[in-house]
Amino acid sequence: MKLIRVAAAVTNQTPLDWQGNQRRMSAAIADARRQGASVLCLPELCITGYNCEDAFYTPGVESQAHEMLRGLAVETQGMIVAVGLPLSYRKALFNAVALLVDGRIAGFVPKRYLAGDGLYYEPRWFRAWDDGIRATVDLDGTSYPVGDLVFVCDGVRIGFEICEDAWVARRPGGELAMRGVDLILNPSASHFAFGKHEIRRRFVLEGSRAYAVGYVYANHLGVDAGRAIYDGGALIAAGGDMITEGPRFGFHEVCVTSAVIDFDLLRMQQKRTASFRPELGDDTSHEVHVPFRFPALDTAARAPQSSCGGSEPRSFSKEEAFSRAITLALFDYMRKSRSRGFVVSLSGGVDSAAVVSLVCLMVRRAIAELGIDGFRQRLSYIADLEETTDAVLRRLLLTVYQATRNSGDATREAAAAVARGTGATHLEVDVDDLFGTYVDKIADAIGRDLTWERDDITLQNIQARVRLPSVWMLANLRGALLLATSNRSEAAVGYTTMDGDTGGGLSPIAGIDKAFLRIWLRWLETQGADGHDPIPELAAVNRLAPTAELRPPGAHQTDEDDLMPYDLLEAIERAAIRDKQLPLEVHQTMRPRFPDLDANQLATYVERFFRLWSRNQWKRERYAPSFHVDDENLDPKTWCRFPILSGGFDKEIAEMWRAI
Prior knowledge:
This protein is α/β, with parallel strands linked by helices and 660 residues long.
């Protein structure tokens, strides 16, 4: 039996954090060595961090990466380690992986298929490597093979699929199988999105089965540059069986997962496959033979290992996945920005309650996984951080309820209940005098009183805006990050006040729709996240109809009266923006889904959506950075581009009305 222990590392890297990135990669190599692994795959562009953006153009970035690569090579005595970095060849930059073998650089394999959709912009910086091309590249006077290569180490043939390579129809794995490859390594930077992990599992499993190989998949972890969340989830498969999986959404900076693969068994499986037709002939130009000797393994020591705890469920409910993704993102964003906690303007509504609950859950999850000492160590820049979860929450989370004459007792009490249930430090600030002062000054300037009948939007917006300076002051006083509370549904139709409720340095729920947030809050109230108690105090929010509470109480203002039912808004948004349907097509799609709405009322809602969508792109351009959790989001910086100025679908809306 040819038994070899292989390993995949997930690492929480940061762009251009040279010392930190090197420390984490060295820790991964050391962890793999302790587990007895001979082969280790690190994530894509692990040396620099994946999202360096236009910094990839900087010559110093590449030279620094090469220097780090040489240092890492020294640490690989007795091992084979794959590590990603940018590599120049003939004035073009490539997203490459270096294979380090027993202390030496064996060669480089560039990525064939670049990710250029959604939040990915790889073609802006990198060039795709052509199939079948092999060359040499010079680093500091030494030439190394580069290109479409197979590395042969002690008779084991190793090839690569780099992230996107495995997502395309013509995967490199098919060619590698024809060349007799035994092991495919996949260094990836695959962001989290709902349901995406199951796709990864399928292509890893199917690749290992169809190619009769061992398959090692390594991913990034956490928030590296601001918007994308990486969920980790190392995968090791062989011959169509998933041998082991690493945990996802972990708070540890490094997690190494290893397993033993029997390569003789895989070769026998391939021999039994009658349809297998290997490449024949003497062309070995794609092969790089590297001296190495795999150690003999005890057949009894074949159990998978992980450096960061036991296994977790392969998949999660949408509510659980959302909780884990955003809480990990909040933790990383806080510590990487060196913020001393968070400040939230807590209105007593769904959005702000969701944001506060996520911060609470972040603290609970991180302390449960890291322990209080590990948690404090990761936030060591915050002096004298307390030693209990409750005290940490009071220190890191400040909420403030800001009342005007139009605020009601129900929202005030709901805000206080949420703050109490989440352990936040809570303040109440009356800003009605500020509201009145602005109204009086403008009335004096224009020579008339402002009235709700004539100046409705103006009077609503100024209430939202006068709340912002107070929470910014509190954030400055605490050295904390102000969190905006706008959601995706509001972003779609511009139902938000710029420089009001959009104010903040981070908008953690701007990527998720209001309909789901309401479901999630009820889930958190009654069931709670896995391993953590529910927050029953959220009932005070969940029983209220969502309202901006900016008109006088007698107006009985609700969000859905101003807009439309939130489930309909979400459905229209998906059809119009994700599926690119025109107004008439959207109307036809919605009719069977919402049969209780008559055709004219539905058309009114469809028109309202398209009108509001078209006139509010400028607002979406100005949102604070938001986390990407859904591959259909509206963030113009990562997914959905739309002109700020447009014709507003006038012709298409008229055609819809004529048709019905």
